[in-house]
Amino acid sequence: MTDVLASRSFRGPAAEEAIEAVHNHLDSLWLDVPFVGDMDQMTFTTAVIESASNIVQHAEPVGQDPVELGVDIEVQPALLRARVSAYNAAPPFGPMVPGSPDEDAESGRGLALIEALVTTVTFERQDGTNTWVLTRTSQHG
């Protein structure tokens, strides 16, 4: 088992306030792991916030319960990992593969942006929960 040097978790309604809460968690996380370089912090933070924002903006409830956002972040010696989940959510619309949206497209850039910022992006769906797992290999570790 790889050592987890620092972690943060958030779960709450998928609303704009959740994005600010996740941002605050990330800010405090980086204080615990000052050896993580600024570029890794910035790109990983952007990818996590973009993922969470996509859930807040686009996730549709699968039933009566509202969609909840869950974010679990871990820092290991050479790896940053985030699990960004939409609980009580319908499956995402369309393919979960990055594409190059048309220049006129209003959306569809989020996944491509996220993939450009991190090392890997995987998608899991289980029991009404959509989860994107983002990892970034840290330059310091």
UniProtKB/TrEMBL annotation:
Keyword ATP-binding: yes
Highest rank taxon of the organism: Bacteria
GO molecular function terms noted in the UniProt entry: ATP binding
InterPro entries linked: Anti-sigma-factor_SerPK (IPR050267), HATPase_C_sf (IPR036890), HATPase_dom (IPR003594)
Family annotation (Gene3D superfamilies): Histidine kinase-like ATPase, C-terminal domain
Keyword annotations from UniProtKB, A to Z: ATP-binding, Kinase, Nucleotide-binding, Serine/threonine-protein kinase, Transferase
Record organism: Pseudarthrobacter quantipunctorum
Pfam name, any one: HATPase_c_2
Protein name: ATP-binding protein
Domain Histidine kinase/HSP90-like ATPase residue range list: 44-131
Keyword Nucleus: no
